[in-house]
Amino acid sequence: MRTAQWNDAVSVIDRVTLVLGAFRAEDTRLGVSELARRANLPKSTVSRLVAELVEHRYLERDGTGVRPGLRLFELGELAAQPKQLRTLALATMADLHDATAQTVALGILQGDEVLVIGVIRGRNAPRLPFRVGGRLPARSTALGRALLAFSEADAAGRVAGTDDPTRRGDLEAELARVRASGLAYDPDDAGRGIRCVASAILTSAREPIAAIAVCGRAESFDTDQVAPALRTAALGLGRSLPPRAVLWPL
């Protein structure tokens, strides 16, 4: 994208943000003139943006004005779901952190990536390649492999890819081992001096809601000591959390 095009795109995002941000909690609807005044934008610009936002359901018509639309509500619900899950899992994450003295992370699968939704840092923890809100490649991380092992076959196949049959076969064999043991490992541990082990949080139907991981310095990380506590934490969360349909309604 050329620089001018990029600047135009950013400018549009800024203007849309100003228009949507003009709504207050007490507003039932706003007219274009009031939106333009609050956003400090030309009325013609706001009128054009409002028409497009209505078309895409971010705003909806209400008499002579507009109000926030269903699409904004849907996006808000999506944002609230990881927060709800993180809140429900926080006590277990804290117990696991206390038991292992290591960093504990919580993640969910989104496409071919893991979205990290919770982290409790361990004492003297090494610098880890993830943060809350950050994304990790599913195929090459402990959190991702724990989730892929119990996901639909097409999800694992999509992440593995078809361009390299050997590579895909290796990943599928690893996922089978994860299903058998309940534990997944980060294949890049040695190169970063970090070791991570993860376990999927499963519903009674063995559907993966999320995955929980324990990470620490490779030279002092005792997998045999961490694994039982991790399995217990994942199993307990799977039993205590509401069904997936409650956390992620259809």
The residue ranges in which pLDDT falls below 50 over 5 or more consecutive positions are: 1-10
How many distinct helices? 10
How many separate domains? 2
Overall CATH class of the largest domain: Alpha Beta
Tertiary shape: elongated
Distance between the termini: 36 Å
CATH topology of the largest domain: Beta-Lactamase
The whole-number mean of residue pLDDT values reads 83
Query: Strand count, sense and closure of the main sheet?
Result: 6 strands, antiparallel
The number of strands is 8
Helix content: 40-55%
% residues in beta strands: 15-25%
CATH architecture of the largest domain: 2-Layer Sandwich
Helix and strand layout, with pairings?
Elements: H1 3-21, H2 32-39, H3 43-55, E1 59-62, E2 65-68, H4 70-100, E3 103-110, E4 113-120, E5 135-137, H5 142-149, H6 153-160, H7 165-181, E6 184-185, H8 189-192, E7 194-202, E8 208-217, H9 223-240, H10 244-247
Antiparallel strand pairs: 1-2, 3-4, 3-8, 4-5, 6-7, 7-8
Description:
The protein is elongated and about 65 Å long. α1 crosses α2, α2 crosses α3 and α4 (70-100) packs across α9 (223-240). The chain is α+β, with helices and mostly antiparallel strands and 250 residues long. The strands form two sheets. A six-stranded antiparallel sheet has the order 5-4-3-8-7-6, with helices on both faces. Strands 1-2 form a two-stranded antiparallel ribbon. It has helices at residues 3-21, 32-39, 43-55, 70-100, 142-149, 153-160, 165-181, 189-192, 223-240, 244-247; strands at residues 59-62, 65-68, 103-110, 113-120, 135-137, 184-185, 194-202, 208-217. A hairpin with a 2-residue loop joins β1 (59-62) and β2 (65-68). It folds into two domains: 3-68, Orthogonal Bundle (Arc Repressor Mutant, subunit A); 74-247, 2-Layer Sandwich (Beta-Lactamase). Residues 1-10 have low confidence and may be disordered. The protein has ten helices and eight strands. Helix content is 52%, strand content 19%.
